[in-house]
Amino acid sequence: MRKYIDPTELEFQPQELFTDLVLDQTYLADVVVKTRYLDQQSYFIIHVEHQTDSEADFPHRKYRYFALLHLKYDRPVYPIVLLSHSSPRRDEPNEYVIAFPDLEVLRFRFQVLQLSHLHWQDYVDVPNPVACALMCLMNVQWHERPLVVLASLRLLARLKLGEAKSRLVMGFMHVYIKLNRREREEYKAELAKLAPQEQEEAMELTNMWIEEGIEKGIEKGREEGRIEGRREEALNLMRRQLVRKVGLLPQELEERLALLTGSSWKRWPKICSILSQSRTWLPGWIHTRRCWKHNTCAWNDAM
């Protein structure tokens, strides 16, 4: 496509939201770009849809996007699908067909970019930040993970995007690839093999990579702290309701109560109402529904 589009004429459209009143469904198009043919005044639309899972009905949905965009812009639409799931590895369909025994009414085809079928080594010298970010989602063997991170950071260093854009790319990479302790040691060993100048540039991004991981770890810790805080608040509320309805709780019951998980809190008012009808049910009820492993409890759906 790059051979016949004008790279100076790329106009990203607002994210399109389409509503199907008949089926009562909404469709959100991921990326829609208006561009122009090279050396021509004629425009067309590029539609890129990203899929993280394999879906049997996706070709039908892709055709709906195509039809809706074609109707809205009254321009040719070039459809692309970016598939980032690692399994299944089979070839995903690239067409949607409507046919009868004696007539083929429609054969809609779209371009498929299946990352799990691409080899990351083929993109280490492609001067494009998208290639840099997506290498970690390509066909990567487990022992190649440190090499992929190093190749991505080396490419990022050559692109010289600046700190803000570099952090954006590295933040994406951090979601999909995290090195364990052994892999980090392998990464350092490979980094030491580079020429001094390239090693210095890659090392600067390596430090930013580490900082990015630390920041994400801190944010994860904050979120876990908020979850734990909500758990404690719900637990105290449950305890007060029980004391109000059945009186003081024995120590053993307090300990068992602390093992209740969040899935039980939503149904607690109903549970509390049922249990308060007979105080003698309470210790046995909690005992029979606890699971000491991992400090979790399982509850019957009927409750």
Number of DSSP E strands = 11
Rg for CA atoms: 28 Å
Q: Categorize the overall geometry.
A: extended
Number of domains: 3
- Determine the structural class based on helices, strands and strand pairing: alpha+beta
What is the topological layout?
Layout: E1 5-12, E2 17-20, E3 25-28, E4 31-37, E5 43-51, H1 58-73, E6 77-83, E7 95-100, E8 103-109, E9 111-114, H2 129-134, H3 145-159, H4 163-176, H5 181-191, H6 196-246, H7 251-257, H8 262-265, H9 268-275, H10 281-288, E10 290-291, E11 296-297
Parallel strand pairs: 5-6, 6-9
Antiparallel strand pairs: 1-4, 2-3, 4-5, 7-8, 10-11
Helix pairs in contact: 3-5, 3-6, 4-6
How do you describe this structure in short?
The chain is an alpha+beta fold and 303 residues long. It has ten helices and eleven strands.
Describe this structure in words.
The chain has 303 residues and is α+β, with helices and mostly antiparallel strands. It has three domains: 1-117, no CATH class; 125-248, no CATH class; 255-303, no CATH class. It has helices spanning 58-73, 129-134, 145-159, 163-176, 181-191, 196-246, 251-257, 262-265, 268-275, 281-288; strands spanning 5-12, 17-20, 25-28, 31-37, 43-51, 77-83, 95-100, 103-109, 111-114, 290-291, 296-297. The strands form four sheets. Strands 1-4-5-6-9 form a five-stranded mixed sheet, with helices on one face. The protein has a two-stranded antiparallel ribbon with strand order 2-3. Strands 7-8 form a two-stranded antiparallel sheet. Strand 7 (95-100) and strand 8 form a beta hairpin. Helix 3 (145-159) packs across helix 5 (181-191), helix 3 packs across helix 6 and helix 4 (163-176) packs across helix 6 (196-246). The chain is extended, with a radius of gyration of 28 Å. Mean pLDDT is 77; it is low at 277-281 and 285-303.
